[in-house]
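Changelog note: in this version the structure field was regenerated for every chain. One regenerated record is shown below for reference.
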Amino acid sequence: MSYAIATTQPFNLARDYCGSLNHDSNLIAAARKHTKDLSKRFSIRFCGAIALRFLDLTIPLGIATPPWPTYEPLQLKYFKRLAPNGANGQVLTHSNHVGTHLDGEIHFFTPGKDIASLTMDFLVGPGAVADLSDAAGDYDVYTSKMIEERVQVKEGDILIIHTGYHRYGWDQPTADEIRYMVKHPGPDREFADWAKRKKIKWIGVDCGSADHPMNTIIRDWMPRQAREADAHFQKKFGKKLSEYFADDKYQLMHVEMFPYGIIHAECIGGDIDLLLNKRTTIGFFPWRFVDGEASIGRCVAIMEDTEFERAMKEKASLPKSRFGDTMGCKISR
């Protein structure tokens, strides 16, 4: 009998046990113990053979990827070419807030941790993906109640919020940069207080910011959209925008959460539509960035082989973006 186990410990070192292990009882026992230990931490079962697969939740990154407004975009140039240098070499310049990225504590909290200080145990763990695309549209406010009505969120989870606005990302055929960055829904203080009580590790969103865009400086930069939002808030909530998001709430998902260590990833995407209202293991892998206030990175769902194959079967029947990701659309359940 042959066993093949592909795991990590904890997910930062890949191990592959392959071969005819039936003749080596010690190796089988060690493999079973290793998997049992992981099972306790990441809800992974040993089923004779086990493989972990990665579902990409990252948007493509290139020179056309929009950064958060006014931040430096990615710029690329060749400083070496095969002729005459014998190799191609590139120089990149960019801010940390372009593409799928993780905001660190020191982005808004001077005595906080830098990106290099974030442990793998913090970056990887059990989590939930909440689909709010049916409840929150342009300029709307989402709540903790909306989330808990749709998916189980446990204390200490990683939480990914699917607003549906990644369908307006630059990589999608329905791209709309203003809706993606300026009109997406966002939370109020009620949500932030709930996340603290739940001891959420970190939050991810499939749009430009974890804050409501009209609770950021964008309100001043985009006056026409601010007027639209003000009319929306008065009609839906009976308050002016300036009253609903007063100065004491300014950018609360950054200002009020980072001192508690609850940071967030922005511009999640990829195949997120395959995980709506599901629990899974989630990981974010930034650079080991000393003094980094944020970092571009890769966000993934870590799945057992059978779960991954089911997701790929579902993906095969769905339309794809030009980069091969599931298009930002509601998947019927």
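Spot check on this record: Residues 75-316 form a domain with the Glucose Oxidase; domain 1 fold (CATH 3.50.30.50). The longest strand covers residues 294-304.
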